[in-house]
Amino acid sequence: MRHARPPSAIACNKSVYHLSNSAIMRTRIVDRDLPSVNTEASQDMPAIPTSEHNATENRHRQRFDESRRLNELAQALIPGGGHTYAKGADQFPEHMPGIIERGNGCHVWDADGNEFIEYGMGLRAVTLGHAFAPLIAAVQRTLPSGTNYTRPARIEIECAEKFLSIIHWADMVKFCKDGSDALDGAVRLSRAYTGRDRIAICAEHPFFSTSDWFIGSTDMPGGIPQSVRAQTVKFHYNDLASLRELFALYPGEIACVIMEAARTEEPVDGYLQGVKALCHAHGAVFVLDEMITGFRWHLGGAQPVYGVTPDLAAFGKALANGFALSALAGRREIMELGGTRHARERVFLLSTTHGAESHSLAAAMATMNFYQQEPVVERLYAQGRRLRTGIEQRAQVLGLREHVGVVSRDCNLLYYTRDADKKPSQPLRTLFLQELLSGGVLAPSFVVSYSHSDADIDRTLDVVESALRVYHRALEEGVAAFLQTRPVRPVFRRFA
């Protein structure tokens, strides 16, 4: 299947950003006395997809006047300036870029016409690429027939069949709009199934839901009653003893255990199986959050990779390549509590006006079909491996391996930024983001998509090398001498 060839330039010709003499001198000073990086990208790469970008090598000038104007307007109209905290202005250098206008493949253009290679696209929801032609065509075929009816549509059944043919351990599925909805449904089912209230979550996994049961456990619990906050308790990843202690501390009280199968570290042998065994031994439901791992670790998610099946699992993000769709799947005896074919007290599982819009289901069907027809997951790993190798080589040559690097699987690269004492640093993260953006790379992470070509990866590595040279000098002379903006801040914090 072929999709439209996106534009080739790495930065828009409309951009005209004036560099001051001090900035020019800074660039010259940064390059002085640092070793040159001579690395060869791996040649063991899969064929480049039809979305190949011919990214230019030029570092075009940028301006952000319209982003500044729109950012101010957004702050006045929208709490936090955006509808998702992770996309907020406080998560990026000021106005670099502020507002995205459009995307194609793995490239995006901001309100001022600056072009960027993007990573972690749509909070890792866009795994195939922006404006991906097979999905657009599928949605366009669906829209003339309507989007939402009084009774269920045929496509709801077809999409459920397709999904369960891939996530084949599950007996039933319920579609909704985001991961919060799906995991809220899992909590509700677990409480009804067990007759218990308490929820156990993995402390190292940063986000599960926007609902009180989770947000009350974070550093941003405002507006949530203390009685609700107390219902959620935490255990540690790869530490069965910490979960065992929770079951001992709250005997007969824990309804379910919720976690991701993996994030930045892999499960030790037998760990996930041990979690499942502890859950069942203590009468709790085992819930996996597959929002990120689903359709990225493997077509079937993390479960076939690690050889473990949960009682319930939540999927989303990559399921429809950025269209609003998520899914709660699981064992029939638990899922059916949200239905009518049982004699127990009914559970109001998930019932949303827009939960089964036809165009989102059409996008999911097209996404799953493309995954089955093309080596999508294999390419995510291959392009991530190419990027990881290049970043690690450049950091090694510049003596920065302990300060800047990547973690997690090749298909899900996250980076760390550490100071001279090797401690996590928000100012240095901001500096790294700043330098990447100045080079035409928008990268809150280095999570690749199917549309990232070899040229995109190699151009990114050129920009990373320049950013690392600035980082190196910042460690020696202080980050304040190089940072042109206020530092980014954690999403979960008590005060603005």
Q: How is this structure best described in words?
A:
The chain is α/β, with parallel strands linked by helices and 496 residues long. The chain folds into two domains: 21-132 and 376-481, Aspartate Aminotransferase, domain 1, CATH 3.90.1150.10; 148-356, 3-Layer(aba) Sandwich (Aspartate Aminotransferase, domain 2). 36% of the residues lie in helices and 11% in strands. Strand 1 and strand 2 form a beta hairpin. 46% of the residues are buried.
Top CATH class of the largest domain: Alpha Beta
Q: Which strand-content bin applies to the residues?
A: 5-15%
Give the structural class: alpha/beta
- Structural domain count: 2
Specify the number of helices: 16
What is the level-2 CATH architecture name of the largest domain?
Alpha-Beta Complex
Q: Spell out the CATH superfamily of the largest domain.
A: Aspartate Aminotransferase, domain 1
Could you tell me the mean pLDDT?
A: 87
